[in-house]
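Fold these two proteins, one after the other.
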Amino acid sequence: MIDVRRAEAAVKRARVAAALQQMAGEGTPITFAGVARAAEVSTWLVYAPGMRQAVEAARARQSSNPHLPARQRHGRDPDSATATDLALARAEIARLRAERDEQRRQLALALGARMDEMAKADLVARLDELARHNAQLVAAAAQHRSDDAALKARVVELEDDLAAARTSLRRMIRTENSAPARP
């Protein structure tokens, strides 16, 4: 069973080597996934020790081979590549600008909400302060009403005493005036 597996592995490795030669001869860009598809093996095998080095070496030879046209070396025409790269760069710039604008908008909203929260906190503190002051004023007003009632009662009492003193004084004056003179 081990021998069968070794034989299958050798066949698959030979298919990878053949696919590398064919792709290099045709000028097809050599990639790990492309080699795996061409050889009809798993990508795991292409990345396995020994195979990985072979694929990387073939890629290095292909990218450094000046005899191949640029289209075959890079997999595209240089003029169309530049135009495509430019279009992709512009699209990326537009996407990044839109993302930046959205982030600025979100930041402005968050900042505004934070300012509102700070203003609300200040208002709540001011309302608490005013409520305490109002409670003090209500207590002082109640104390003043109580003092006012006590003072009014005292005024009535003093007026009664004054009236009694006047009445008593009048009696004394009458009594003194009506009494015979003393020798």
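Now the second one:
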Amino acid sequence: MKYLVLSLFLTISLGCSTSNKLEKPESSIVSKEFSNEVRTKLLGKWCGTKKHDDGLLQQWNVERHEDGSYRVDFSTTASDGSQENWSEFGMWGVRYPIYFTAVQGFSGENGPYRANTKDPDLYDAYTIIEIEEEHFTYKSFTSGNTFTLHRKCN
């Protein structure tokens, strides 16, 4: 269960662009074209890393597709060296400044399985803080946690 909650908060990714930073429209009404530009930046492969106070290292790699599907591969390494790996998959979208995900299933040692999509914990919304060519920062409405993903993964 702790990994389900963790995966819900870590879901994310971004795409390439010719400019370094998107300039937010000055109008309080955001155009469909601007949301589409942000969506294009979210496409592709991205990664994140977080080290916890207890020594747990979390890493995740995200790939977002043009058809609205995504997959996140998670890996955790405990301070004793033990590792756990799993994945989640689902649908994603953006309507600036909101980024959202809907988990449809998971994959682990026993292969892929469908999620209970009636579970409200499988749906997340985030506010987009910053999108640049090499990183994406967003904040969870549910947990208040802020995440940054990078285009270049180790």
